[in-house]
């Protein structure tokens, strides 16, 4: 209720104006480091050795970006991240949709129990299961594979919950009408239910993708060979190992480069991202 | 031929018996209306015919072929849902085409059928809109169009008029009756509105608590209700019910005394009645005549325009409703006298079974 009020009325009341300025200030604070990173990425490394201030003044250079394209492993890590994030997204959507549809529409013994189990899984923190997970993947000798990077994230109770709620909200009469229109069960799901759940799919998909792209903890634990690093793990390794020799400008360029896909995604799916973060399905 | 035949159909949800061993034949081309109060199992029955609800027992046949094990899409039925159930993400055209596509109809034939249905239902200008951009009445028409194009053996309607405003509802009633006449298809229509049943049906099936109370043509049910339940459900205002004690017979016709002491010499054969037991006399408002008779006091006056309903209290405190043409009604509190037209009364025994005068031709 507060949000529409603020959006509608910041021009009017004094309190609203204060709120507006506060929001502006917060946004500025939030964006400052990003601006700084972008600025630094266009500066020659030898200049930055002396001082990291004054990013608005020349000299500028594109050499840092050229170096990325020429040499470093960033491309390879980016590819890894893309494979992992996209793989997680597709599989999560598939699993959460099927599970959600099952919970929303079918009846089977033990359904309540199973659903409670899914809910309970929401409360399990990542840190609590990281060691058993590591052991499990070590036993089957899967560390340093894409399977290991993707699989543990597919058990995503929030996604199942979201899809269950969304499917429940779709009128069963619509599906019944389709059954009477000679559609098979699968066709009902594919042509009716799935298209109707696109807002929820988009919300969940973006959330999963961003999460997969930014994920750090599990890839750090599982991927020990540099060629299996994801972007986050790779950049972190660079920062600790090579910051002195490679130069800060180069590091910053890598960071910008790493963030680009997410930025582009954001521009395209802004609407859904806001609702994904707010936790409500987009209209 | 595509009549509908239900044979000993029953349905329970867990322990709850919803339909009890129900048998019914609906002939080809009939407009059958299932009428009954909320929760009596009308929708459940319709959904069983459609294949959306499995039977607990019995058989369903359409056109002589047993269909209760077939998938909904293979039964030759089309259904119009109460909330229309249009596909929100498809245009009207796609909505109507969906069922035809699924059974492999060719594109040019689909286009031809859609054009024909759109003409019949006057929705040609809406074909490229989404359901969200339509009014309730327009959605209704689209839902009917979606049913028509499939040329089903049987149309099923589940209270399709209940979401429309009064004016649109009565207009749609007329159009459905016209549509039925034009298509000569078998239609099964579920409602709890007796006006819809009376105006559209060729046959009314009155249901109560999962059982059939009476099956018959509208006027047959109106004039000769089989049970007190039917009598109370059909007709507006509801039939008057007064406690009655038999006092003997005159020329083989039963005489009864009402609670206020009045004696009514009915036209009902005395021999038909059980020997004893409490009886209820039923008489419709139009057969209660003001003028000389038993005294009563006016309690409420309802003006309906073309007639006025007067609710009066008899001496013993029972309420009796009669109607007056136009607006020539007494005022509240007036003392009046009422007579019951003995030729048009019904008697009901303790079990609710009805006894009528020999049919007045
Ligand atoms: N899926 C179900 N599970 C359990 N009980 C049900 C189910 N569907 C219907 N019932 C029960 O069956 C009875 C008949 O329901 P039904 O929907 O057929 O009534 P109806 O005559 O269509 O009423 P209305 O006029 O309100 O639509 C009701 O008591 C209802 O509670
Ligand atoms: Mg119903």
Q: Helix share of residues of chain A?
A: over 70%
Annotation, overall tally of beta strands of chain A = 0
CATH level-two architecture of the largest domain in chain B: 3-Layer(aba) Sandwich
**Number of helical regions of chain B:** 8
The major pleated sheet of chain B works out as: 6 strands, mixed
* CATH top level class name of the largest domain in chain B: Alpha Beta
For this structure, the CATH topology of the largest domain in chain A is: MetI-like fold
Domains of chain B (count): 2
Radius of gyration of chain A: 23 Å
> How helix-rich are the residues of chain B, as a percent range?
10-25%
Q: Strand content of the residues of chain B, in percent?
A: 35-45%
Average pLDDT level of chain A: 84
For the record, the CATH class of the largest domain in chain A is Mainly Alpha
Number of helices of chain A: 15
Write up this protein.
Chain A starts with a helix and ends in a 5-residue tail after the last helix. Chain A is built from 15 helices and no strands. Chain A has 283 residues and is an all-alpha fold. Chain B has 361 residues and is of the alpha+beta class. Chain B has a six-stranded mixed beta sheet, sandwiched between helices. In chain B, strands 13-12-11-14-19-20 form a six-stranded antiparallel beta sheet. In chain B, strands 2-1-4-5 form a four-stranded antiparallel beta sheet, with helices on one face. In chain B, strand 12 and strand 13 form a beta hairpin. Chain B is elongated and about 75 Å long. The interface between A and B is medium-sized, with 16 and 24 residues. Adenosine-5'-triphosphate binds next to strand 2 and helix 1 of chain B. The site of magnesium ion has 4 residues of chain B, from helix 1.
């Amino acid at each position: 209720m507060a949000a529409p009020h603020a959006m509608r009325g910041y021009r009017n009341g004094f309190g609203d104006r204060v709120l507006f300025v506060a929001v502006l200030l917060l946004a500025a604070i939030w964006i400052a480091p990003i601006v700084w990173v972008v600025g630094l990425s266009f500066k020659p490394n030898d200049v930055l050795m002396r001082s990291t201030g004054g990013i608005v003044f020349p000299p500028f250079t594109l050499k840092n970006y050229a170096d990325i394209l020429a040499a470093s492993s960033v491309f390879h890590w980016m590819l890894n991240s893309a494979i992992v994030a996209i793989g997680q997204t597709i599989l999560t959507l598939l699993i959460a949709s099927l599970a959600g549809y099952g919970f929303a529409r079918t009846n089977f013994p033990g359904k309540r129990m199973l659903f409670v189990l899914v809910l309970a899984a929401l409360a399990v923190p990542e840190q609590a299961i990281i060691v058993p997970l590591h052991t499990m993947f070590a036993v089957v000798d899967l560390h340093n594979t894409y399977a290991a990077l993707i699989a543990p994230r597919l058990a995503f109770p929030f996604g199942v919950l979201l899809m269950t709620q969304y499917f429940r909200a779709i009128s069963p009469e619509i599906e019944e009408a389709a059954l009477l229109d000679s559609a098979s069960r699968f066709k009902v799901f594919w042509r009716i239910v799935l298209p109707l759940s696109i807002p929820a799919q988009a919300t969940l998909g973006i959330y999963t993708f961003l999460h997969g792209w930014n994920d750090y903890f599990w890839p750090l634990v599982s991927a020990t060979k540099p060629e299996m690093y994801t972007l986050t793990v790779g950049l972190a390794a660079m920062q600790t190992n090579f910051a002195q020799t490679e130069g800060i400008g180069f590091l910053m360029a890598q960071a910008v480069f790493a963030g680009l896909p997410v930025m582009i995604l954001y521009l395209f799916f802004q609407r859904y991202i806001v609702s994904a973060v707010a936790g409500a399905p987009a209209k | 031929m595509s009549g509908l035949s239900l044979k000993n159909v029953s349905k329970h949800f867990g322990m709850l018996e919803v339909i009890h061993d129900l048998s019914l034949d609906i002939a080809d081309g009939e407009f059958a209306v299932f009428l009954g109060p909320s929760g009596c199992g009308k929708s459940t029955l319709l959904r069983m015919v459609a294949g959306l609800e499995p039977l607990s027992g019995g058989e369903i046949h359409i056109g002589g072929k047993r269909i209760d094990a077939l998938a909904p899409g293979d039964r030759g039925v089309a259904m119009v849902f109460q909330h229309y159930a249009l596909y929100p993400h498809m245009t009207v055209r796609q909505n109507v085409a969906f069922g035809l596509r699924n059974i492999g109809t060719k594109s040019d034939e689909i286009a031809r059928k859609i054009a024909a249905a759109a003409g019949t239902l006057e929705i040609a200008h809406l074909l490229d809109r989404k359901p969200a951009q339509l009014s309730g009445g327009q959605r209704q028409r689209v839902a009917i169009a979606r049913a028509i194009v499939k040329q089903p053996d049987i149309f099923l309607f589940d209270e399709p008029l209940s979401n429309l405003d009064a004016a649109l509802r009565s207009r749609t009633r007329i159009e459905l009756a016209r549509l039925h006449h034009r298509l000569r298809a078998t239609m099964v229509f579920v409602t709890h509105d007796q006006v819809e049943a009376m105006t559209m049906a060729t046959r009314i099936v009155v249901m109560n608590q999962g059982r059939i109370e009476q099956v018959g043509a509208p006027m047959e049910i109106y004039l000769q209700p089989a049970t007190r339940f039917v009598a109370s459900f059909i007709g507006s205002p509801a039939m008057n019910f007064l406690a009655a004690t038999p006092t003997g017979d005159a020329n083989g016709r039963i005489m009864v005394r009402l609670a206020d002491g009045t004696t009514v010499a009915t036209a009902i054969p005395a021999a038909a009645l059980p020997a004893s037991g409490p009886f209820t006399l039923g008489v419709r408002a139009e057969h209660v005549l003001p003028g000389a008779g038993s005294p009563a006091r006016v309690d409420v006056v309802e003006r309906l325009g073309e007639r006025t309903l007067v609710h009066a209290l008899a001496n013993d405190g029972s309420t009796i409703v009669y109607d007056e043409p136009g607006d020539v009604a007494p005022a509240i509190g007036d003392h009046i006298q009422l007579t019951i037209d003995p030729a048009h009364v019904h008697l009901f025994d303790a079990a609710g079974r009805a006894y009528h005068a020999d049919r007045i031709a």
